[in-house]
Design a protein that fits this description.
about 170 residues, five-stranded antiparallel sheet, two-stranded antiparallel ribbon, globular
Length: about 170
């Protein structure tokens, strides 16, 4: 198991995690801006024949993902006081999503924690409806707690950790 998550674009949803083009990746977490593009309605599953288990993933149209992110920017700015510099770059990346759908393969990350799958729905709600349970789930899946300074509300670079940009956006492979 690689414990990666990946952001993909695709023209089809017939084999959701096998088709498409990976545009970003993350190791051991799901980037904040990825979750900000999806709502609970975008949580899908497919049946993994080899492992005989339902596999969750996030999927929606690119246009809907962009609108969802735009709608949530003000809430993200309330959560993290110093993300303004990263939003324009993320918006430019979204404009390069030229296929019909955007998907997140997150099963390996969810499997790292025995209740990872149960944390996904509350984490998706955290940006719009923050409460203790949703914020705990959000913190676990995004790992923002590793770099978040609660007293100032800022995200800080931490030695031997991914950069703030990687926690928010992921990284290119």
């Amino acid at each position: 198991m690689s414990n990666d998550s990946s952001l993909k674009i695709s023209n089809f949803l017939d084999s959701p995690l096998e088709s498409g083009v990976q545009i970003l990746a993350a190791e051991y977490y799901i980037p904040v801006f990825w979750l900000a593009m999806f709502t609970t309605e975008d949580l899908k599953t497919f049946w993994d024949i080899d492992n005989e288990v339902e596999v969750p993933y996030l999927a929606t149209t690119v246009s809907r993902a962009i609108k969802t992110f735009e709608h949530r920017v003000s809430n993200l700015k309330k959560m993290f006081t110093n993300i303004d510099d990263y939003i324009p770059e993320w918006t430019q990346l979204q404009k390069k999503m030229t296929m019909n759908y955007v998907l997140v393969d997150l099963d390996d990350v969810l499997e790292m924690d025995e209740d990872g799958r149960e944390q996904l729905l509350p984490a998706l709600k955290a940006i719009d409806e923050p409460d203790v349970d949703s914020m705990v789930a959000f913190a676990k899946l995004t790992c923002f707690s590793d770099i978040f300074d609660q007293s100032s509300g800022t995200l800080n670079e931490v030695h031997n950790r991914p950069s703030v940009k990687e926690y928010l956006c992921g990284f290119e492979r």
